[in-house]
Amino acid sequence: MSYQPSPSNHDGNDDHRNRRLYNPYQDLKVPAQTLYKLPTSPEYLFQEESIAQRRSWSENLTYYTGIGYLGGAVLGAGKGLVEGVKASEAGDTMKLRVNRILNASGHSGRQIGNRAGVIGLLYAGLESGMVHIRDTDDIINSVVAGLGTGALYKAAAGPRSAAVAGAIGGITVGLAVTGKQVLKRYVPI
Q1: 123, part of any domain
Q2: 127 and 143 share one domain
Q3: Polar residues compositional bias: what residue ranges (predicted)?
Q4: Residue 2 lies in a domain
Q5: Residues 155-177: pLDDT tens digits?
C-alpha cells in the first residue's frame, strides 16, 4: 500500500502528492482500522464477577458514603450561602460580607455533609448485610435498609423519633428505587 512518486511533472505545487506515506502499522500485519477497537462492555478477571450485577459491599460503602457527604456538603454550602447573605449588615465591607458567607457556607456544608455521609454509611452497611443474609438482591433489601437507617440514625432521640425516621427512610428509599426502575424501563439510556 505504498505510494510511489512518479518522476514526471515534479514541481513545487504538487509536492504533497509525490511523497511516500509512512504507515507505522505495515509490519504488524493487522489492519489499522481494527487495531484500536476496544470492547465497550466491562471485562472481568473471574467469571463469577460477571454474573453479579451489583457493586461489592466495600464499593457500596464507599459509594453511598461519598455521595451522601458530597451531596450534603453541596446542599449545606447553599444553605450557608443564604444564611450568610441574610446575616450581612448594611455597614459591612465587601471583605466582611464575603468572609461571613464563606464561614456560614463552610460550617453548614461540613455539618450537613457529615450527617448525610453517616446516613449513607449506615444505609450501605445495612443493604449489603441484607443482600448477604437473604442471598438475593431486590427492592425489599433496599426498603428494609432504609427503615433501619432512619431508625438507627434517630435511635438516640427516643423510640418515637426512631420510628418516624425509620418510616421516612423506608418510604424515601422505596420511592427512589421505584423511580429508578421506572426510569430504566421508560427512558432509553
Answers
A1: yes
A2: no
A3: 1-10
A4: no
A5: 999 999 999 999 999 999 999 99
Residue 130 shares a structural domain with residue 99: yes
Q: Full-prediction pTM beyond 0.90?
A: no
Residue 183 maps to a domain: yes
Q: Are residues 110 and 64 in the same domain?
A: yes
- Say how far residue 150 (Cα) sits from the centre of its chain: 22
Looking at residue 57, its amino acid is W
C-alpha span between 31 and 23 (Å, rounded): 11
Rg (CA), the chain: 29
- Which of the four pLDDT bands, split at 50, 70 and 90, describes residue 34? low
pLDDT-based confidence at 13, cuts 50/70/90?
Answer: low
CA distances from 94 to 85, 88, 90, 103, 140 (A): 11, 10, 11, 14, 53
* Sign of the Cα pseudo-torsion (98, 99, 104, 106, in order): positive
Q: What pLDDT was estimated at residue 12?
A: 52
